[in-house]
Design the sequence.
């Protein structure tokens, strides 16, 4: 089976994983916001959480397990599981699923593959 | 069995239909087979044709004499379990709830689907599409299909290009 | 230190309803919500709700949230704190709050815990792969942010949440390959199941997931049939390709604040986990600390709203704030709860609540 990795899609437009048309909801998505994730410039929309913007850009690999060195995503998207923690603007342990995206945010994985392998 | 696969048997479905002769006028078919705490079908009916009672867990009962097939209950039902049926000139006309995009357009032929999700041999014709503020984003779609499919048809599916 | 008559912790249907009634009794109220928005789980519910008119039946959850919020947001006696996580509950009715970079204390004459519940997890091989989400997480992504978790989903669990989220995934344009259910029967309302079957979604009962497949992320699942004794039937293994697995195996009350303050708690399976022992006035063993909604037992939003109102009423009454409609409202609300719970769907909650009552007596 093909191995999937961070399928980071088109940098300038994050709408690969956006809902196209919805029978009940209307998504405004007017204001584009640009941020960096591990140095790469990505785009989201005002109103996104950091986690939602990352998922929209095809990023599923949020961290790595320290003991088993395995890739990890996130589970609850509501602030309970703690799997989505990243370093945002220099502050560690920010719950990216509960934090609204802002223009120019610098988002960095906290437990990268390299760090996990080093521990 | 409906408890295990979510599909009502033909007998169960028929039990919700009135006698065929009554269907010369449109009538609501309420496919609510289990007791759940819910009563908006009864409170929405402008003709008091649907009764549930004070214990809202009871399965709704319909008085086909009072029912005019106005379709208020179709978009009131949170389970989307109600449709309106009429028979005319060898065709069965259905009014069903539909909550997907894109909506069908009048005159189009769409796939007809049964309760197990299987596509029926014949397509159905889109006769009308109603979506108003009152229906709150539930479209009420009227279709016609050959009468033999009376107890099979339940919903439409967009034919893929 | 901030001083209030009443602190309500949790801005979901239970908490919002509690605020409404307490404000009607003239209490000065502070509402704390850890998210950036009020509404709790309601803001993700695009479907029309069940129940009766008094619980906003046939209104979409997202609209019920707006109604509940609009009813109270401009009240002068209400102070709303968003992005505010209550991190501590102490026996002298002091709470500690962490909001953005601030940490502060609030003392209240009464406290209502309406913290809701969190999604349970499931043990299976490779259950840590990226692409495995709780059903609620998928709802958050898709209904609040308009972001799809994937293109092909397998849903584990056929309770109401599993069935409803599967339907909502289809509405958002995501293919749901199957709903997998370990027990013999579908767990949720059959009307939800019927809606899915019409869409061609397989509902596989007596089936469980053995493992997630994939290298760096989910690429598929292996499922297997179970016999009457819940044992795997060898040779019935099957692989379903997908890029997302949704786990919907129940909720667990978020009891942490009550446990921290050493309220008397009891573990009740039917209620989802650890719940507070409370009087018929919804007061926990901590004086003037009340609890309502999913934190007292997993149920529906309709009951959460009613319980919230009762808590607001009781918190007011016990402090001498008399609601203009005090006794009549109490009777009406308890009646509504009875009706919601008296049918076959209410069996589990009735059984669970009996266990809480028994121990207390």
Sequence:
């Amino acid at each position: 089976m093909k191995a999937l990795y961070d399928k980071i899609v088109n940098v300038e437009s994050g709408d690969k994983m956006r809902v196209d048309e919805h029978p009940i909801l209307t998504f405004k998505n007017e204001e584009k916001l640009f941020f960096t994730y591990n140095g790469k410039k990505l785009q989201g929309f005002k109103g996104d959480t950091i986690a939602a913007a990352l998922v929209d850009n095809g990023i599923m690999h949020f961290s790595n397990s320290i003991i088993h060195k395995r890739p990890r995503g996130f589970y609850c998207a509501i602030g309970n599981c703690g799997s989505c923690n990243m370093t945002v603007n220099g502050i560690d342990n920010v719950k990216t699923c509960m934090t609204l995206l802002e223009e120019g945010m610098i988002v960095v994985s906290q437990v990268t593959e390299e760090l996990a392998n080093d521990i | 069995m409906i408890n295990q696969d979510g599909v009502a048997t033909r007998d169960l479905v028929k039990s919700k239909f009135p006698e065929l002769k009554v269907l010369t006028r449109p009538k609501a078919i309420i496919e609510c087979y289990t007791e759940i705490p819910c009563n908006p079908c009864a409170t929405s009916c402008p003709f008091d044709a649907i009764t549930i009672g004070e214990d809202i867990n009871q399965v709704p009962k319909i008085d086909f004499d009072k029912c005019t097939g106005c379709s208020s209950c179709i978009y009131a039902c949170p389970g989307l379990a109600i449709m309106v049926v009429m028979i005319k000139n060898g065709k069965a006309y259905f009014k069903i709830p539909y909550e997907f995009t894109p909506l069908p357009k009048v005159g189009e032929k769409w796939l007809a689907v049964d309760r197990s999700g299987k596509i029926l041999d014949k397509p159905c014709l889109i006769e009308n599409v109603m979506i108003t503020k009152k229906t709150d984003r539930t479209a009420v779609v009227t279709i016609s299909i050959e009468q033999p499919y009376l107890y099979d048809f339940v919903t439409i599916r967009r034919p893929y290009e | 230190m901030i001083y209030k008559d009443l602190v309500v912790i949790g801005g979901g249907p239970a908490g919002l309803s509690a605020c409404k009634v307490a404000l009607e009794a003239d209490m000065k109220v502070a509402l704390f919500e850890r998210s950036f928005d009020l509404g709790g789980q309601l803001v993700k519910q695009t479907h029309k709700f069940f129940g009766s008119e008094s619980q906003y039946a046939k209104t979409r959850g997202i609209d019920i949230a707006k109604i509940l919020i609009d009813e109270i947001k401009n009240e002068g006696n209400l102070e709303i704190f968003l992005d505010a996580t209550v991190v501590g509950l102490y026996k002298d009715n002091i709470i500690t709050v962490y909001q953005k970079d601030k940490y502060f204390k609030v003392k209240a004459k009464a406290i209502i815990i309406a913290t809701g519940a969190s999604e349970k997890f499931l043990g299976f091989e490779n259950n840590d792969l990226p692409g495995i989400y709780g059903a609620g997480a998928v709802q958050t992504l898709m209904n609040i942010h308009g972001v799809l978790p994937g293109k092909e989903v397998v849903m584990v669990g056929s309770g109401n949440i599993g069935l409803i989220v599967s339907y909502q995934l289809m509405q958002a344009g995501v293919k749901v390959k199957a709903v997998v259910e370990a027990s013999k029967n579908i767990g949720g309302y059959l009307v939800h199941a019927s809606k899915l079957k019409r869409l061609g979604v397989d509902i596989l009962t007596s089936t469980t997931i053995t493992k997630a497949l994939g290298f760096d992320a989910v690429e598929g699942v292996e499922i297997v049939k179970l016999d009457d004794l819940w044992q795997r039937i060898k040779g019935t293994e099957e692989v379903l390709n997908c890029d997302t697995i949704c786990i919907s195996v129940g909720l667990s009350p978020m009891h942490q604040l009550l446990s921290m303050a050493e309220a008397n708690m009891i573990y009740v399976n039917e209620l989802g986990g650890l719940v507070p022992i409370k009087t018929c006035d919804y007061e926990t063993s901590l004086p003037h600390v009340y609890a309502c909604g999913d934190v007292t037992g997993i149920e529906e939003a309709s009951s959460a709203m009613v319980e919230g109102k009762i808590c607001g009423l009781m918190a007011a009454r016990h402090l001498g704030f008399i609601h203009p409609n005090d006794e009549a409202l109490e009777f009406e609300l308890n009646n509504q709860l009875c009706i919601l719970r008296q049918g076959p769907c209410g069996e589990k909650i009735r059984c669970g609540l009996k266990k809480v009552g028994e121990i207390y007596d």
